[in-house]
Amino acid sequence: MKSLGLVVNPIAGMGGAVGLKGTDGKETLEKAIGLGAKHVAYDRAARFLRGLKSADVGLNLLVGAGKMGESEAKRTSLPFKAIGERKRETTAEDTKKVAKSMIDEKADVLAFCGGDGTARDLLDAVNGTIPVLGIPTGVKMHSAVFAVSPESAARILIGFLSGNLPLREAEVMDIDEEVFREGRLSAKLYGYLLVPYEPNLIQAVKMASPVSEIEIQNQAAIAIYLIEEMKPDIVYVVGPGTTTRIIGDLLDEKKTLLGVDLFYNKRIIASDVSEREILEEIKGREAKIIVTPIGGQGFILGRGNQQISASVIKKVGIRNLIVVATKRKLNELRCLRVDTGDPDLDKRLQGHIRVITDYREESVVRVA
Question: Which segments within 206-340 are labelled E, that is strand?
């Protein structure tokens, strides 16, 4: 019988909805908690485990003790063995220690709930000895080691343990959070992990947008069209990205590159907002959401813009979601994706959507 290890980083993803762009460091975590951040890793782990349970496959399940996997395994009533110490607070060293212990327990593959920082911890711990798969949970997920959703992670690992999927080396990327919070993106390649590979269920590494005259002209044309279409007395929730930032440039407003900003009557009324601030500003007002996909990955929601949460989307309405992308970026994507944290909402968002690709030009694109 095959063995699967699950390691949960309990604090992963907590900084997203409150606009902190990560939770690295004790001080940042305390700030996130003070802003009302909620745990997201537990729900992600539970969704993954339910996917395993529904498949009804025989396997030895190893889980991190306490908050690192055991708590959610108990709720799904799957048989398991807890590894490590039960702690009130966990650190990166705990993640590494549990992962190494699972290797000693002869695990065939490891799954983890976390973001790029947790992926780096696994890279240090396993050193290429066994395959690893990320269950997307963090704020920063530039690496190519993550499934597109917790349910997809379960499907991938079931396929791999059944002998139906190959392995490939996948990039582990991470960024400097302090620099990221200042509005600058500095990504670094730290190494490679062996990952079970199913191309439709694994996200690609995040690709930076090339700086070219054609690309900038395309972005400007999109921004001009959006500005012309902006209606008075409507709040526009504008997500991060170089394409959306040009909206602010053309309006002589300083839009953040990596944050979510609110426009009202073509002026910024709030910058780098959290989920709570968005919900407060749109209360009793008509609103629209403008987002652009992440290059190479295709996510329009749930990656880097977790402030635009399921609650915000439901309040604004799916019909008021506007997606923009340059022609080059769209041509490089097989489809668009969403991962709002609400599986029912994700299903409602799937299908086909109009994407603005130039001045008064649109394409119909599939959302998987």
Answer: 235-238, 261-264, 267-270, 287-291, 299-301, 321-324, 337-338
Task: Give the other-Cβ count within 10 Å of 217's Cβ.
Answer: 13
Strand pairing partners for 235?
Answer: 264, 287
Nearest residue to 320 via CA among 353, 342, 293, 283 = 353
What pairs with residue 83 in β-bridges?
A: 64
- The dihedrals phi and psi of 314, each to the nearest 5 degrees, come to -65, -40
Q: Which residue's structure tokens are 């306490």?
A: 66
Place of tokens 């782990």: 45
> Among the CATH numbers 3.10.290.30, 3.40.50.300, 3.40.50.2300, 3.40.190.10, which is that of 3-196?
3.40.50.2300
Side chain identity at residue 174, one-letter code: D
Contact 302, 333 (CB under 8 A): no
Q: For residue 61, give the 3-state DSSP assignment.
A: strand
Q: Please tell me the distance from the alpha carbon of residue 100 to that of residue 112, in angstroms, as a whole number.
A: 13
Strand ranges for 41-166 from DSSP E: 60-64, 81-83, 109-114, 132-136
DSSP character at residue 67: G
Per-residue pLDDT tens for 256-298? 998 999 999 999 999 999 999 999 999 999 999 999 999 889 9
Report the relative pairing of strands 287-291 and 261-264 from DSSP bridges.
unpaired
Centre a 10 Å sphere on the Cβ of residue 331 and count the other Cβ atoms it contains: 10
* pLDDT tens per residue, range 60-100: 999 999 999 999 999 988 899 999 999 989 999 999 999 99
Domain ranges of the chain: 3-196, 213-367
At a CB cut-off of 8 Å and minimum separation 6, what does 16 contact?
Answer: 40, 138, 139, 306, 307
Contact 192, 171 (CB under 8 A): yes
CA distances, 182 to each of 176, 249, 272, 330 (Å) = 10, 18, 11, 28
The answer to whether the beta carbons of residues 286 and 235 sit under 8 Å apart is yes
